[in-house]
Write a structure and sequence with these properties.
The chain is an alpha/beta fold and 381 residues long. The protein has helices spanning 2-22, 82-91, 133-138, 154-165, 176-189, 193-215, 245-249, 272-278, 288-296, 304-307, 330-341, 350-362, 368-376; strands at residues 57-61, 67-71, 77-79, 143-148, 169-173, 224-228, 235-236, 253-254, 268-269, 282-285, 311-313. The protein has 13 helices and eleven strands.
Length: 381
């Protein structure tokens, strides 16, 4: 009896096992009903990390060896003064958020439209600093750029200014011998490489031309020149002054040689006795008042230059072509003065050259009539 019960039990277990093997798997439970999916941008956590973006800043070494951290992309520049304003207005006027020199009415037609409407924030250097830090910071400037001649104190000055403002401050040496390099550096720094190269090429062409042509002027034919750039024609730019450097570049001799030369406004004041001793071949002035005095004052009438009709007023729009400040405006001065003094050596059409340079420097399209009028007013005696 027990054996029969055990046999029946084993048979039942075997039958259940066979049924389980032959049955289809039970379907998975249906998912709960959901709202329709909404298409939207994935959150950052849901996507693969993007390639690392370019650094938001770069380290720049300026002309006095200071390493300064700058924005990788610069969009708002504050110039430190007059020279920086002039140079930046040529290469990147759209990035300027203020000016370091007032843009006068006579300058506005030639310069970038709207430049005269920018806040005037003053200059770091000069007879006295007029830099208005509060006004400058209110412009939203990202960087302060100083350009011009190297000064012994420039590194210390800009470091102090950087600490005062919290803005990066850099210096680029930009006298004529360094100006081509300065334009190329600015081109790279401000994403204006093509424009920087255009301006640098003009500088190099000018310096090469002047070096070649001045060497062709015989020593015994070099003219002595008195150059005055202020309202008083006795305020002269003597030999050694940065304001008079174009004279030597074109092969002229500075008639005024004094001790304790200054390059500041007004230059070295000489007296009439010195004037007669210098007795220049040519007199050049930059202001109408000085011109009138030279032409009408009997004392000046004793000079050979006046008697022979060699008195000239240099063009001054938008900047004096020879100086004040002595910067990229001297490019025009080199072409002008060489052609004025030695036309047989500096042999080119100065009117056409004026149009070309105004186009390159300031993107100004000068008409034939404008160029002729500007140059016709130069020889006045």
């Amino acid at each position: 009896m027990k054996k029969r019960v055990l046999s029946l039990f084993l048979a039942a277990v075997l039958l259940l096992g066979l049924c389980a093997c032959g049955a289809s798997p039970a379907p998975a439970p249906a998912p709960a009903t959901e709202a329709p999916a909404v298409t939207e941008a994935p959150t950052p956590a849901a996507v693969e990390p993007a390639p690392a973006e370019e650094s938001a800043s770069v380290v720049f070494t300026d002309s006095c060896g200071r390493e300064v951290e700058l924005p990788a992309v610069i969009s708002r520049i504050a110039p430190s003064g007059n020279v920086a304003t002039m140079i930046l207005a040529a290469i990147a006027p759209d990035l300027m958020c203020c000016t370091g020199a007032r843009i006068e009415e006579n300058q506005q037609p030639y310069l970038y439209e709207g430049l005269g409407d920018l806040p005037f924030t003053g200059q770091l250097y000069g007879g006295k600093s007029t830099l208005n830090l509060e006004e400058l910071l209110a412009t939203g400037a990202e960087i302060i750029i100083d350009l011009g001649d190297y000064k012994k104190s420039v590194a210390e000055d800009l470091t102090a200014l950087q600490e005062q403002t919290g803005l990066p401050c850099i210096f680029l040496e930009a006298d004529l011998s360094h100006m081509a390099a300065a334009f190329r550096t600015l081109g790279t720094l401000l994403d204006r490489e093509e424009r920087g190269e255009e301006l640098a090429t003009l500088v190099e062409e000018t310096l090469t031309m002047a070096e070649r042509n001045s060497a062709a002027v015989p020593e015994d034919e070099r003219l002595s020149v008195l150059y005055s750039s202020g309202p008083d024609p006795l305020g002269t730019n003597a030999e050694g002054s940065s304001q008079a450097q174009v004279l030597g570049m074109v092969g002229a001799v500075n008639a005024v040689v004094v001790e304790d030369v200054t390059s500041k406004g007004g230059g070295n004041i000489i007296n009439m006795e010195q004037l007669y001793n210098f007795d220049p071949d040519v007199v050049i002035v930059s202001e109408d008042g000085a011109l009138e005095q030279v032409l009408t004052d009997a004392a000046w009438g004793q000079l050979r230059a006046v008697q022979e009709g060699r008195v000239y007023r240099v063009p001054t729009d938008p900047y004096c072509w020879l100086s004040a400040p002595p910067s990229m405006n001297m490019i025009l001065g080199v072409w002008y003065l060489g052609n004025l003094l030695y036309p047989e050596v500096y042999d080119y059409d100065m009117a056409a050259k004026t149009q070309e340079i105004y186009k390159t420097l300031w993107q100004y399209e000068m008409s034939d009539e404008e160029a002729a009028a500007m140059l016709a007013a130069v020889p006045v005696a």
